[in-house]
Design goal:
The complex is a heterodimer of chains A (366) and B (477). By secondary structure, chain A is of the alpha+beta class. Chain A is built from 13 helices and 18 strands. Chain A is globular.
């Protein structure tokens, strides 16, 4: 039976009163790995925007607030969450409504990561309930804040293992007036990463750089219309050696597809997400044995479609970076999350034990 | 400012501790003569001084590890130090501590333009990181005003900001990885040239932990391509309120300037007398800087001018040249020096929601009368980070204490309107005892748990950040 609290206090009571294990669920659209049998703790009751100040570029909302509701509200003021949240339903098969808490717990960040940072870089405050049922706040609603330790970053991407998020504060950005996609065709993976590196090292403020082998290499430029046109021209000149660039005005669709990895939608197999130094990416991809790959973040992020049950990490051997299996069949002994180096793992385990001494929060994850 | 009583057993073992340090470090890396340790008695918060037991200046991660391991085994407290430019007392020693200075570790280890990062030893100064890459068209974005002197180690410890954070973020947003030495000497690699963490975001909590979790010896930093150009516009208003509204309107219009700086009348007057930047005689002044190609700059500045004109500015001065830009920035950059000419001053660092700006400035003005001390306000308006400068007379008995009491009231006001105690300087000892204004005991307990994990014996910079009563049992254990 699921526990569905309506308030932070109720949720704290539920955690305090539980002997666990508990599986924490927002919209259920981003679950990775296997928690095992557990009581479900739903956060969707903690819904609603509590503060939105367009002039201060800040938003505060309950962790259960649907992402779609927030995005619509921000759009009405010409603003947005900077980090371009991926919609994982097409890839993972979920049907629920993504919540802010889930976005933060997964540190879900899309193509604009290369320009404005990840979810954790826009996250300025959290409230959460630790494994003892204690309410803790950190950060706040201002974008420059170094008061005390930054537990805000620690909570981003912690997949519910340190606490249950109840409230989230984000800094926002204005939606630019114009956007354009530039496409290079026919590049192999090495040339594509070289082109993306050159683009991202230019002053032309590329806000997306992705490569789908066989389909094209994509660059996005956003800003005021005249400025976008100017930078597009400059970028085409800069990358002239890589071939002619074509332009595409419908950037919204293109980048939603890149963001959501639509290349893999409807295809069977395990999906891996690999984070590497961009220039290493083509070598890693070539060695992976993947059935299909898609590059984002200028090569820094590789999505791989693998035969079910294949152990990508064993196949690659040690490499600089990490691999997460975001979609798989039933538990097969392959860890979803990359095992950490021993010294790091010791710190991580000790932190979990401090924040969740009874080990009841999402125990099988990370 | 109360500091814990030095550990008498440590003080009594000074000769032994120094001998052991000399056994693992070259003689020139151990400072123990009382006349020489005095060089490390304070940082840029000069009101507080205390010579350390000794100071060490290692040259490698291995030496740092050896020192920490030794101090850990002997139960000797350690205070890490970058360049000693902290305004919050982050590097203030205790009499029983060893200062661990990283200043000699200042090499560039790797530059990689293809992947846009630089790896440096942490004693390297902020400005010289940019210096290492600017000939190739890159820069390191965080730019604290002490950037000529301050070390990357200190930047990471304090999560330093600067004037250009609105667009580029602060240190934590530009840090990819660190080599961290724990108090027991363990060397941990966190992050690297890739863009996100595999597990918990330890890098995120290490950055800004004020040297309490470990000593950072190497850092991988994100570098960015230099913009084609940048130019400011100066806008004067006859009220703080209107200037504040103008800032909000610029942001709402979808422009993202790299910097929006705000100065109020007392500050304008002082800098004008000092630097002769030709600032207008007005209540509030904004410097708004935008970046891009010449045409892009023109377009953005035109938009900003249109918005500003709606608020009836008393002055609107667009820079047309490098020289004019320098002149506009001259006053702002000499603001602290100018205030220092008039008096001793204390620089605060609270952040407020921008919408609360007019109210906060009004209240500060009222409190200034109540306390009988003048205040000038310089301010990163785009992100709400205030720098009120309270003027006092260090030679007048009681004036420093009065100034500190006034400062505390201003910081409480920042928290009351939804902001925080410190936006970029850090807590250190300066704001340590105000933490309870912003945080519950449970909030602070959660933070202390992180230190319990990294430094279970609470030997690293332990008397900082948290009120002493919160940490007393941990430090005593």
């Amino acid at each position: 039976m699921a526990i569905a609290a309506k308030t932070e206090a109720e949720l704290a009571d539920a955690v305090r009163g539980s002997n666990g294990p508990m599986r924490i669920v927002g919209g259920g659209t981003r679950s990775i790995g296997h928690v095992g049998p557990a009581e479900v703790l739903e956060t969707s009751g903690l819904s609603g925007v509590t503060l939105y100040e367009p002039g201060a570029l800040t938003l505060v909302a309950g962790a259960g607030t649907p992402l779609a509701e927030v995005e619509a509200l921000l759009a009405s003021e010409g603003q947005r969450l900077p980090f371009e949240v991926p919609d994982m339903r097409g890839l993972l098969g979920g049907t629920g409504a993504s919540t802010l808490g889930g976005v933060v717990a997964a540190n879900a960040s899309g193509p604009r990561r290369v320009q404005v940072g990840a979810c954790r870089d826009s996250l300025i405050g959290v409230r959460f309930i630790d494994g003892t049922g204690t309410v803790i706040k950190n950060g706040g609603r201002v974008m420059k804040n170094v008061t005390g330790y930054d537990l805000v970053k620690l909570m981003a991407g912690s997949h519910g293992t340190l606490g249950v998020l109840t409230e989230i504060s984000f800094k926002l950005l204005p939606v630019p007036a114009a956007a354009m996609t530039l496409i290079l065709n026919g590049l192999d993976d090495f040339r594509a990463v070289a082109a993306m590196s050159a683009a991202l090292a230019s002053p032309f403020e590329v806000s997306g750089a992705a490569h789908w082998p066989g389909s094209g290499t994509f660059f996005r430029i956003e800003g005021f219309a005249a400025s976008v046109a100017y930078r597009a021209g400059q970028l085409a000149d800069l990358l002239a050696d890589f071939g002619p660039m074509t332009r595409e005005d419908d950037t919204a669709n293109r980048w939603a597809n890149i963001r959501d990895v639509s290349l893999f939608h409807g295809r069977n197999g395990d999906v891996w997400r690999v984070s590497v130094k961009p220039s290493d990416a083509p070598v890693i991809a070539a060695r992976s044995g993947a059935e299909a790959v898609a590059y984002d973040w200028g090569g820094g992020l590789i999505w791989m479609l693998m035969a079910p049950g294949s152990d990508l990490r064993a196949g690659l051997g040690p490499f600089s970076g990490h691999a997460t299996r975001v979609r798989s069949g039933p538990a097969d002994g392959i860890a979803a999350f990359q095992p950490e180096a021993p010294a790091l793992s010791t710190l991580t385990k000790a932190l979990r034990a401090k924040f969740d001494p009874r080990g009841i929060l999402n125990p099988g994850l990370m | 400012m109360q500091m814990p009583v030095p550990d008498a057993t440590v003080l009594a073992r000074k000769a032994l501790i120094v001998d052991r340090l000399l056994a693992i470090l070259p003689a020139d890396a151990v400072v123990h003569d009382e006349a020489e340790t005095r060089a490390y008695e304070c940082d840029a918060l000069t009101a507080y001084r205390c010579p350390p037991l000794a100071a060490v200046l290692p040259r490698s991660t291995a030496e740092v590890s050896a020192v920490l391991k030794l101090c850990h085994a002997m139960g000797v407290p350690v205070v890490p130090r970058g360049s000693g430019t902290s305004l919050a007392g982050g590097a203030l020693p205790t009499a029983d501590c060893v200062i661990l200075g990283v200043a000699r570790m200042n090499n560039v280890l790797e530059t990689d333009y293809e992947n846009r990062f630089i790896k440096v030893q942490s004693g390297r100064t902020n400005l010289s990181v940019t210096g290492a890459v600017e000939a190739d068209g890159f820069f390191y974005a965080p730019d604290p005003s002490s950037q000529l002197a301050c070390a990357i180690a200190g930047n990471i410890a304090m999560n330093s900001g600067g004037a250009h954070c609105l667009k580029y973020g602060v240190t934590t947003n530009n840090l990819l990885g660190v080599t961290l030495v724990l108090m027991d000497g363990t060397v941990v690699e966190v992050g690297g040239a890739h863009m996100d963490a595999p597990g918990l975001d330890l890098l995120g909590v290490i950055c800004g932990s004020e040297g309490q979790l470990g000593v950072v010896t190497e850092a991988t930093l994100r570098i960015l391509p230099k913009p084609e150009g940048a130019r400011p516009v100066l806008i004067g208003f006859d009220s703080n309120e209107v200037a504040g509204t103008c800032v909000a309107d610029i942001i709402k219009a979808g422009i993202l300037p790299v910097a929006i700086e705000f100065m109020d009348r007392p500050c304008i007057r002082a800098t004008e007398d000092f630097a002769h930047a030709g600032y207008p005689d007005c209540e509030a002044l904004l410097i708004v800087e935008v970046e891009g190609s010449p045409a892009e700059i023109d377009e953005q500045l035109a938009l900003i001018k249109t918005i500003a004109t709606r608020h009836n500015p008393v002055e609107l001065r667009e820079s047309k040249s490098e020289e004019e830009s320098k002149k506009i920035w001259l006053g702002r950059k000499s603001a602290f020096g100018a205030m220092g000419q008039i008096n001793d001053y204390m620089c605060l660092d609270g952040t407020i929601p921008i919408t609360a700006l007019p109210y906060v400035l009004r209240r500060i003005g009222e409190m200034s009368k109540e306390f009988g001390l003048d205040v000038g306000n310089v301010f990163h308006a785009g992100d709400g980070n205030m720098h009120p400068l309270i003027l006092y007379d260090a030679n007048k008995p009681g004036d420093l204490e009065l100034c500190e009491a006034f400062g505390a009231e201003i910081l409480k006001l920042c928290v009351e309107v939804g902001g925080c105690l410190t936006g970029e300087h850090g807590v250190g000892i300066e704001k340590r005892d105000l933490m309870s204004v912003q945080f519950t005991d449970a909030d602070m307990e959660a933070q202390c748990r992180v230190k319990d994990v990294f430094d279970p014996a609470w030997l690293l910079n332990a008397a900082k950040v948290f009120p002493l009563h919160i940490t007393a049992s941990r430090r005593a254990a």
